[in-house]
Amino acid sequence: MDTRDRLDPPIPSNCFGNAVFPCRSTLNTIQLVGEEGFGNAVKEIRRSLDEQINNEEGVLKGMDTIFDRIEATKGKIKFGVAGSPKFDYYSTDFGWGKPKKYEVISEKFALAGSRDSKGDLELGFCLSKHEMDAFTTIFTDGLIN
């Protein structure tokens, strides 16, 4: 979650760097499978973001226990998303030109705004061959049906 304008005082939008903080959601596997699975995930992520954004104590509430919460998830199946379409990575120029390709490899799933057209998304995947084959099959089946 981009927190630059939600801090007190806010960080200017032209600041070099960012203030991205994790926003965590938890669902049971049964809630993620079937026709309602994707919608359930979106609703839970939205709920979690709203809770963090609208917290009276500010967006940093709970950051003092972030490492304890990460430790508590060891051994559990996790799905992370890195990046944001809100950050315009392709317009960034540090003096050596704008990037031709932007990729995130810190999570299995990455999200960025498209280089080629406004409003489109680039999705990145960092999966094993077995996971990628399964994803491809499910994704293709979803497009067909």
TrEMBL record:
Keywords: Acyltransferase, Transferase. The keyword Cell cycle does not apply. Pfam families: Transferase. One of its GO terms (molecular function) is acyltransferase activity, transferring groups other than amino-acyl groups. The keyword Nucleotide-binding does not apply. This is Phenolic glucoside malonyltransferase 1-like.
